[in-house]
Amino acid sequence: MRPRGRTRSSFSVLAVLLPTTTKLLSDAGSNSIMKLAAAAAALLLAPLGLASAVPKLERKITYDGYKVYRIATHHDAKSVKSKLASFAAVPFNHNTNEHLDVAIPGGEIAAFEALGFETEVMHEDLGADIREEGAYAAYQGKFE
């Protein structure tokens, strides 16, 4: 299956750019200024081709309905993580010695809670909290 987006044309740009640069460098002969100009042009244009190789995101990512929990690991994060392996959990912290913070999709909350972990709810609906946080206006006061 071919990736969506502008990926195909990006590789075409690179396929034309690289041989053209090589030809310019070899045709420049002993003229080092021409070689330098050709190399500079290649370096400046290459990122344009590479940047357009990134496929577009097909849909907006949302965390609506995700519930965020802090799970007490009691210094056994490996055991907790193994029990979470079947869930589409999104981890939030790296140091998991004392606790593990995870977002659980709405459809998996009942199964997650049935595991009986010692938890604290950090966000009832992560998507709603993200929208609320993004709704704040710029600070209009003075910094002193």
Can you give a write-up of this model?
By secondary structure, the chain is of the alpha+beta class. The protein has 2 domains: 7-51; 67-134, Alpha-Beta Plaits. 44% of the residues lie in helices and 13% in strands. The chain is built from 5 helices and 4 strands, in the order ααβαββαβα. A 4-stranded antiparallel β-sheet has the order 2-3-1-4, with no helix packed on it. A hairpin with a 7-residue loop joins β2 and β3 (99-104). The longest helix has 21 residues, at 7-27. The radius of gyration is 26 Å and the shape is elongated. The termini are far apart. 8% of the residues are buried.
Keywords:
144 residues; alpha+beta; Alpha-Beta Plaits; 2 domains; 4-stranded antiparallel beta sheet
Instruction: Compute the number of structural domains.
Output: 2
Order of helices and strands: HHEHEEHEH
Spatially, the strands of the biggest sheet line up as: 2-3-1-4
Distance between the termini: 58 Å
CATH architecture of the largest domain: 2-Layer Sandwich
Count every beta strand, where a strand is a DSSP E run of 2 or more residues.
4
Radius of gyration: 26 Å
Poorly predicted regions are 1-14
Mean pLDDT: 78
Helix content: 40-55%
CATH topology of the largest domain: Alpha-Beta Plaits
Total number of helices: 5
| CATH domain class of the largest domain | Alpha Beta
How would you characterize the largest beta sheet? 4 strands, antiparallel
Structural class comes to alpha+beta
| Fraction of residues in β-strands | 5-15%
Coarse morphology: elongated
